[in-house]
Specification:
Enolase-like, domain 1; 10 helices; binds flavin-adenine dinucleotide; globular; 2 domains; 14 strands
């Protein structure tokens, strides 16, 4: 591929994008910001691109009650500034303000970030903790799946041929409780990203989400820890956390890669879970 031989198509609807991809075959790729695609090895094999940015419906952030739908063409920059995001998913807004650089934020998208299926991006643990879902459209119609199930491994997704992600959706964590809980996310370099969300009522933890990304091929929820934390009195939380997360959780099947051996990564991953959960417990305050 040379840049001059590359053909770029700009459909105006989601259906037209899918039809184009279906007709053009595997040498065509959808893209939004291009910040990941044009740096990847994949770019060498590209002949045709289907630009999703001209599709007006994909450039919307839409609130439906307690749920937010984020279109695949919404830039990270526009998203971070959206009132809807700040109201419904403030945890995501806070994280977006701390990643990448202005050039990438201006053109990159949240959906593109997930479709890259890069284990070490910052958002995977948070989206797993939020139970975020992706809505896909392909030649066979629409389907939706857990955002954590979109990557099938580093650089690979479970998308079907000619299928695109149209939106990411997630529910607010604030609607189900009279205590807003705490959102706590931490990236430890490329080694581990950890999100701990706590919700509670009447002085007790009612719901938790503990997720780890980066150290593992796909983000995962640490359900044993979630179960052990649920029901704990808030006052005892910091002490309980130390007890519950005493060792690296066995579910945390840390993998060796170019960023470090499994042994090297396991300690900071386990330590980050412990630190985040303790901090979340200390910060937690009932609603005024
Ligand atoms: C310099 C730099 C710094 C960065 N720093 C960070 C960081 O600190 N933290 C972090 O988490 N991330 C970081 N990133 C990653 C960045 O967030 C992603 O590159 C960006 O979000 C990808 O979005 P995009 O729209 O540009 O995707 P594109 O490059 O357009 O696409 C990426 C991949 O997804 C596919 N794709 C895109 N949209 C769709 C769709 N709707 N349906 C199906 N497939 C699709 C494309 O075919 C391609 O394979 C960084 C990237 C760069 C280049």
């Amino acid at each position: 591929m040379t840049w001059t031989s590359l053909r770029i198509h700009a459909p105006e609807s989601e259906r037209a994008a899918v039809d184009l991809l279906d007709g053009l075959g595997p040498a065509a790729r959808p893209y939004a910001g291009g910040t990941g695609l044009f740096l990847s090895d994949e770019r060498r094999h590209l002949e045709q691109l289907v630009d999703l940015k001209e599709i007006a419906a994909l450039a919307e952030v839409e609130r439906r009650g307690d749920e937010l739908h984020i279109g695949a063409a919404v830039s990270l920059w526009a998203l971070e500034r959206s009132r809807e995001l700040r109201d419904v998913l403030p945890e995501v807004a806070a994280l977006l303000g701390a990643i990448a650089n202005p050039r990438v934020l201006a053109s990159g998208t949240l959906v593109g970030n997930i479709c890259l299926a890069a284990p070490r991006t910052d958002l995977t643990a948070l989206l797993a903790a939020l139970d975020a879902r992706v809505i896909c459209l392909g030649p066979g119609g629409e389907r939706d799946l857990d955002a954590v199930d979109l990557p099938s491994g580093p650089g690979r997704t479970t998308l079907r041929p000619a299928e695109i992600v149209t939106r990411l959706s997630s529910q607010s964590r604030r609607s189900s409780s009279d205590w807003p809980g705490s959102a706590s996310t931490r990236s430890v370099g490329p080694t581990a990203s950890v999100t701990v969300l706590l919700e509670g009522a009447d002085g007790h933890v009612t719901r938790t989400a503990v997720a780890v990304g980066a150290a593992v091929p796909r983000a995962l929820r640490l359900t044993d820890i979630e179960t052990a934390l649920t029901g704990a009195p808030l006052e005892e939380l910091p002490g309980r956390v130390t007890e519950i997360v005493a060792a690296v959780p066995p579910e945390l099947d840390v993998t060796s890669d170019g960023h470090g051996s499994a042994e090297y990564k396991a300690a900071p991953a386990g330590g980050a879970v412990r630190a985040r959960a303790s901090r979340g417990g200390r910060k937690a305050r009932p609603c005024p």
